[in-house]
Write a structure and sequence with these properties.
The chain is α/β, with parallel strands linked by helices. The protein is built from twelve helices and twelve strands. It has a single domain (6-363), classed as Aldolase class I (TIM Barrel), CATH 3.20.20.70. Helix 1 (40-51) runs parallel beside helix 2 (81-96) and helix 7 packs across helix 8 (283-291).
Length: 364
């Protein structure tokens, strides 16, 4: 016995009252309708985590416009009234079970592999993404070379984030999270090998972080006071998980500071167990120190010792759990009862990371 788990304490996080510090990490499930509406099955999926005791739910990445933002077939969107209305049961079920819920806003950029609005992807530069498309999200083969975004297309993407955030606010979400991680569009602008631009959106870290600043500023301005806006960062990417910022802590601090200066209410740092060592500094801790903002840490946090360290030593304020939550939708209740969590079964996400596959696998 280690005593009460620090994640079980209530907290006011970035303006949101949470019953505990356990968050559901955003996970792509590609289970919306073909035209991007959330489904009753999705409402049931998210409700299970709320009913299982999670304090905060962060949704899967949701596309923001009807141009280039969609990344996957059957990805949910929030580009119009119908898509926004379809999210309402998700919000209502989560709130009814005592959880708060944040919508993650995502533009896939160059790593789009399924977009019903257009057949070309865009990115900061015409650089083919590394590796191959993700079969678990219905992709296959190499990514095509994207079009280099024009200033007008960049402005349209920024406006898409802002408009989507307003729809999320009006649908009852407690906040939005801007997805600037995992190799998607905003991260492509941050990354030197995918951003070869020579204009104000390229060059040094300040130039490469300009788009993150613009999106954050516009989202904050559009949604107004009292609505929470977070930004998620990572070093690794869906198609290059081992990549790290070449400038180390200096790069990290510059990126974190850019989001904070633009008005972000919290930062969400995605990593892995090896990113949160048993001793010494961590990236979530650096984010907290540099910006003074509350921080969510994600990656390997189903490991009790890691989770306790990040909270006890104040590296992070909230822990986001992904595969550990899929295996244990009632994880907070298990922790409170000092019950061992069930191990994660990779079959839940193979061959497709869909809710239907998970159900059929569980029933097999």
């Amino acid at each position: 016995m280690h005593g009460p788990h620090p994640a079980l304490t209530a907290v006011r996080f970035a303006g949101i009252e949470l019953r505990n510090r356990f968050a559901l990490a955003p996970m792509t499930r590609v289970s919306a309708t073909e035209d991007g509406r959330a489904t009753p099955e999705m409402a049931e999926y998210y409700a299970a985590f709320a009913e299982g005791g999670f304090g905060l739910l962060i949704t899967e990445g949701t596309y923001t416009d009807t141009a280039f933002s969609q990344g996957y077939l059957h990805q949910p969107g929030i580009t119009d009234k119908a898509q926004a209305a379809a999210w309402r049961p998700v919000v209502d079920r989560a709130h009814a079970a005592g959880a708060r819920v944040v919508l993650q806003l995502m533009h896939a950029g160059a790593v789009a592999q399924g977009n019903r609005f257009c057949d070309r992807a865009v990115g900061p530069s015409a650089v083919r993404p590394l590796g191959e498309q993700l079969t678990k999200y219905r992709g296959g083969g190499r990514w095509p070379v994207p079009l280099e975004m024009t200033r007008r297309q960049i402005a349209e993407a920024v406006q898409g984030f802002a408009d989507a955030a307003v729809r999320a606010r009006d649908a009852g979400f407690d906040g939005v999270e801007i997805h600037a991680a995992n190799g998607y569009l905003l991260d492509q602008f941050l990354t030197p090998y995918t951003n070869l631009r020579t204009d104000e959106y390229g060059g040094d870290t300040e130039g490469r972080s300009r788009l993150v600043r613009e999106v954050t500023t516009e989202v904050k301005g559009a949604t107004g006071p009292g609505f929470t806006v977070g930004v998620r960062f990572s070093q690794g990417k869906i198609n290059n998980p081992s990549w790290r910022w070449p400038g180390g802590d200096a790069d990290a601090g510059a990126v974190f500071s850019a989001a904070a200066a633009a008005g972000a209410d919290y930062l969400h740092l995605a990593g892995s167990g090896r990113d949160w060592p048993a001793h010494g500094p961590t990236l979530p801790g650096l984010a907290r120190t540099v910006t003074g903002l509350p921080v969510i840490a994600n990656g390997g946090l189903h490991q009790d010792a890691v989770a306790r360290r990040l909270l006890d030593e104040r590296h992070a304020d909230v822990l986001a759990v992904g595969t550990g939550a899929l295996a244990n939708p009632d994880l907070p209740r298990r922790v409170a009862a000092d019950e061992a969590p069930a191990p994660f079964d990779p079959g839940l996400l193979d061959p497709l990371a869909t809710l239907a596959n998970a159900r059929s696998h569980a029933n097999a």
